[in-house]
Amino acid sequence: MKKLGLAAKEKDMPFKANLLHPEVKNSFWVCLMGKGYHAPRNKYRWCKERMKIKPANQFIREAVRSHGETILVLGTRKAESAKRAATMKKHEQKRVRDRLSPNASLPNSLVYTPIEDWSTNEVWMFLMQYSNPWGGDNKDLLAMYQGATADNECPMVVDTSTPSCGDSRFGCWVCTMVSKDKSMEAMIQNDEEKEWLQPLLDIRNELEVKNDRHRRDFRRLRGNVQLFERNLGDGETAIKPIPGPYTRKWRETWLRRVLSAQVEVRQNAPEEFKDISLITPEELSEIRRIWLEEKHEFDDSLPRIYQEVTGEVFKDIRLGAEEKTIGSDEWEILEEICDDEMHLELMSKLLDTERQFKVKNRRLGIYVKINFFILDLEERSRRSQMLIRSMN
């Protein structure tokens, strides 16, 4: 990005590099560790909308407001997949001119696809024949894709039976939309200097586990229980609850795993990655807020976990976040005296609600909240009993 900015300035080109981020509340770790969303799946791909589409669309809308219209230049190609080819062909029907199509989701925005008909080999042939206009080395790019190919080869030949290095793809290192991250596996296998990536691959593989019901609550995120009937074959069926968010235990487990990987990576990574952050202070602060204020886990375990793993004291960037909370000792006592997890959850919510209202000048609304928690527990208990009877 720095090279792109310098080259644009030297050549008097009106380009400026902008790095887009999702809102903290929509970031991957806040959704997964804070709210408890399970790792993305094909039927619930919550990450793309929150982390990629929304930040990009917001940036484009601001550009449209400032300049009246935008043209979005994309390197999408029909040869990438049959699905991509079908989508691009559909948009061709409304073209305003060659390779220029209306943006289906944003008004006053056009999409320009200059290399839509190129094959993967043609892309690499071009990159190897022409120098990079902003000073990057295309041979380094070739080497990176070569290292991400299983056989460590990247042929550019006319023989279409030989795989091109374009088969290796790069995206989010935590992506669970595929069963294996073959690119990262190949990079680690083919290059000793990439072995520091192994902790990241381990986390990604652990997140990808399909049968993760034991990690998740039997209730949905809003507390309701939903049942579905599964066909077991031979005329047999079983009624099961649709699993909800990760339980507290597993949310804390993911936090430990990521912080541990961050410590290990900083110790073993090349010099330019020594200060890498797998999870940001802003994300940690928001996760802590959700655990305390929305999930009422008043023992405030995040600072303790952070110090145990990193050896450093956690400093919350939010103003007033260091307010005294009920400690972990009290939580352990509460666990001992409560009969089950449902009563533990109710008691923690009641105690934490009292703590939150204690600092307010007016306690208006506290009885409404308390009654809601009690009625909610009674309703959940009733649904749980119905679930048990239906499963039996």
Helical residue percent? 40-55%
Sequence of secondary-structure elements:
HHHEHEEHHHHEEHHHHHH
- The radius of gyration over CA amounts to 26 Å
Sheet with the most strands: spatial strand order? 1-3-2
Q: Determine the structural class based on helices, strands and strand pairing.
A: mainly alpha
Distance between the termini: 60 Å
Largest sheet: 3 strands, mixed
Explain this structure to me?
With 392 residues, this protein is mainly α. Among the domains are: 1-76 and 78-116, no CATH class; 332-392. It is 48% helix and 6% strand. The protein has 14 helices and five strands. It has a three-stranded mixed beta sheet. A two-stranded antiparallel ribbon has the order 4-5. Helix 2 (28-35) runs parallel beside helix 10 and helix 13 (341-358) packs antiparallel against helix 14 (366-391). The protein is globular. Residues 157-162 have low confidence and may be disordered.
Key terms:
mainly alpha; 14 helices; about 400 residues; two-stranded antiparallel sheet; globular
Q: Could you give a short description of this structure?
A:
The chain is mostly helical and 392 residues long.
